[in-house]
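FAQ: What does the model actually see?

It sees only this:
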Amino acid sequence: MEGGWRSPAVSCKKSRREPVNGLVPAQGFAAKDRTGMARKFFGTDGIRGRTNAGAMTAAMAMKVGQAAGAHFVRGNHRHRVVIGKDTRLSGYMLENALVSGFTSVGMDVVQVGPMPTPAVAMLTRSMRADLGVMLSASHNPYFDNGIKLFGPDGYKLSDADEHEIEALLEEEPILAASEKIGRARRVEDARGRYIHFAKSCFPEELRLDDLKVVIDCANGAAYQVAPSALWELGAEIVAIGVSPNGTNINNQCGSTHPHLLQETVVASGADIGIALDGDADRLIVVDEQGRVVDGDQIMGLIGSSWAREGRLTGGGGGGTVMAHPGLEGVLGGGRPSAGKASRGGRFVLERMRSGGFNVGGEQSGHMILSDYATTGDGLVASLQLLAEMVRQQKRASDLFHLFDPVPQLLKNVRFSGGRPLNDARVKAVIADAEAELNGSGRLVIRPSGTEPVIRVMAEGDDATQVERVVDSICDAVQQAAA
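And it is asked to produce this:
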């Protein structure tokens, strides 16, 4: 496969942004936290952007290492940071720059190579590290990359920590004395540690001997660990998306492009297909008939299963405003799901923690099961689904379609600067769309916090009307962004 995949794009003129201490904020990725304070570099999921442009350069990565290292150098113990990455070509460049930054301020570095995001979070805790770093732009194409930071507890950093690090980025770093420069080493058994952890989340009394599973690893971070874990549990494996070359991550494969998975499941006569994204913190499922099962159905199945076992906490689950209405009656054995977050896995997790939920997720397949992990984990979530198939001895098509979703359509419009949603023409088209739906549907329109796109979602009783409404808003946003 050549090059990377782009979502429906809008080509726009580059906006001009003034550099901050020689650093240029990433185009279109800036965000505000819940206090309304603007972020120069951090979005809703770390720092992300196009590599060798804007903020995603080797120079920036080294400064992030110095700033984050300085922020977490506390106490008299030897300080340690765990660094993982996905399979993007730029990962080599950014990893080396981060190592230079962290060691220059006195932190030891443990490099674990290509590993899923949840594996880095897990290893950060198990290795008693002060900090964890994942180099990934998740489901984005290969030419983007990102820096995700985890605290010693394995959770993504708080707003306060990110503000402190941003402030340190604008200051000259305080370098360690020559004899206190950090050391770097690679841990060769990191993959085995994560495989063991993932398998420990699967019931000991069950096996996958009678299941044929297609696993699509998106040519990303899980290309080795996911097939190995499933095979060790007894499944017959058909692995696709396991030949990364640096530029084919997420390229017409993985959770954002399930077509290859659908074809492979049907052609191979598999019982189920599982697609992960580039950093394996989300999944999408395909049943044996080739039908896609989205995150809402996945969340509903896990939640209802845990409710029957008496394991579900909080009286429901943590979803987002994009969730299908049918999910409301499924989570918690008929009780309404609670704790809807505005957007993104980070906000879902925060709502879960405040509401006492142990199951949460997004329609995109980002599943958070807090009994096991501090962030989304596509492999661990898939094992919960496979366990339920084994327990009930039912086909995927009989298990995973818990409710009939109403017509819903989501489209992304890429832009490279400005605030298209503030344009008067866009506001007028949105108002017209709301009037047309007239209470029979709903709109959710928001900028992404992880890539420069506007997400436009409409839901209603009439599929034709939903498509017309979404297209009209997308056209208006495209014109405003041009």
